[in-house]
Amino acid sequence: MGMFLNSKAPYEIYSVIRKSPYFVDKSLLLAELIPSFDSINCYCCITRPRRFGKTVMANMIGAFFGRTDRKDRIFDNLAVSEKEEYEAHLNRHDIIYIDFSRAPKGCKSYAQYIKRIEDGMMEDLMAVYTDCGINRDEAVWDALQKIYEQTDNKFLFVLDEWDAVFHMPFISAQEQKEYLLFLKWLLKDQSYVEFAYMTGVLPITKYSSGSELNMFVEYDMATSERFSGYFGFSDAEVDRLYEIYQREGTISKFSREELRIWYDGYYTATGIKLYNPRSVVLALTDNQLRNYWTSSGPYDELFYYVRNNIEAVRDDLVFMVSGERIAADIGQFAAVSMEIKSREQIYSAMVVYGLLTYKDGKVLIPNKELMAQFNELLMSRDSLGYVYNLARKSEQMLRATLAGDTGVMEEILQSAHDTEAPILAYNSEAELSAVVNLCYLSARNQYRIEREDRAGKGFVDFIFYPERKNEDCIILELKVDSTPEKAIAQIKEKNYALRFKGRLGEVPRYTGRILAVGISYRKQTKKHCCKVEILEL
What is the pLDDT of residues 149-165, one digit of tens each? Predict the structure, then answer.
């Protein structure tokens, strides 16, 4: 057992995960990988956004296939144990496991970084294969080849966080190329490679048609159907976890539906919706719904991706925070190039990092957790121009609505129109809806705002569910070339207010007022009109 060769770490780490009350069995991935061993397709790279279980899966692979002296057989009750090939592969392979996010103490150069990996692998190999004549000064791939020639032993490689070097500030672009050559020399066309499993966030860099790592078959979340079910949680899996949560004995502080609103919404290439697994587990463990998005430098900060081309994406952001989907041509972007400038490059990067999701040729904000990130961006970046200015007025807009001050409401909407931004042509209710949403941006701190939500006898344009049961509820209907009175008449006629009434015999969930808000815009006069009315259930 060594630091890289047949390390105990993957087994120990996965064993802890296996004992978690919110463990989800994804072990069938193991059975799906086995047919690729010792084949022309023995190079597999799976990329996913952060927090989607990549390292958990890498540890599972190392724990299952790697040789170990542990006797507790943690896989015996998992789905993979039902497969015919289970016993033939359980702990029967020599694993070389490399976590590329790790670095030596005080690391300040690529030479120090890669030396730790090369020297560590050589020490492990020399300790186990003492009779193979391995020379400490030779290349690790030469040592591995010697071992194979003399013993017929092959190695299964598990490479986690393969793209970590592209986030390390002390590694230059030239050194990144050297790193790719290192991976090529270690893996490509090497007879000692039984299987190579690589994972990370970024797609493999393509310098040319003859990429150093073109032996890998890449599987991403947005465009690749295979392996879709192994990363992220499905609805059925979250259903089971929520049942466990309810049995834990503590008072449940949120509903199953609220869990969906916060963390669901990512799409696979097959169109299946997935939950962010890390956030789901933390919410259930902490018994609290909140933003568990964690920052790790500029690579997952929203503004990093929009600052280079604000003009191209600014109007799109307004539509996306309104719940709209934006048409975009998503393609893989080069890992070594953070000079992301075009609209398509920005959205491609944001999908790769999990800031947006992608479905049917369009990008969208997946859930409430990510919506909070976008709201923060719009409220804090004055370089976004009119979008920022309108967002800053949103607190005043909410106060005016709750007070029934239609004069202030109309003044803010008129100010929005007077900016003469392209999005404010109001040629459709969708454009009016986008601006109205922006004018109520700060309301998301107090309300869960749903657009086109089913209520009563139809679908309401906006419905504001208060976070606190004693606060006012808001139903908002929009009309172009009509009147706010007709908007409110529709709210009453279709009985949208029933959305706030509990089931028969239940105590009402909300005890505040129910406000019907009608907003209209006339193209000819370019005037907004607003009306606020208190409804009775």
Answer: 999 999 999 999 999 99
Rounded Cα gap, residues 271 and 280, in angstroms = 20
Whether this model's pTM surpasses 0.70: yes
Q: Which has the closest alpha carbon to 316: 348, 359, 364?
A: 364
CB 517 within 8 A of CB 464: no
Examine the pLDDT at 300 and tell me if it is beyond 60.
Answer: no
Structure letter (DSSP) for residue 203? P
State which amino acid sits at residue 403: A
Query: Which amino acid belongs to residue 141?
Result: W
Q: Yes or no: say if 302 and 310 are a contact pair by the CB < 8 Å rule.
A: no
Residue 256: strand pairing partners: none
Beta carbons of 202 and 166 less than 8 angstroms apart: yes
If one looks up domain 9-219 in CATH, what number appears? 3.40.50
* The pair of three-digit structure tokens given for residue 372, joined into one six-digit string: 């909070």
Rounded Cα–Cα distance for residues 48 and 155 (Å): 25
Q: Is the distance from CB of 474 to CB of 400 less than 8 angstroms?
A: no
Mean pLDDT of 125-129: 95
> Would you report the helix, strand and coil content of the chain in percent, each value rounded to 5?
45, 15, 40
- How far are the Cα atoms of 29, 43, 61, 231 from residue 32, in angstroms, in the given order? 5, 13, 11, 14
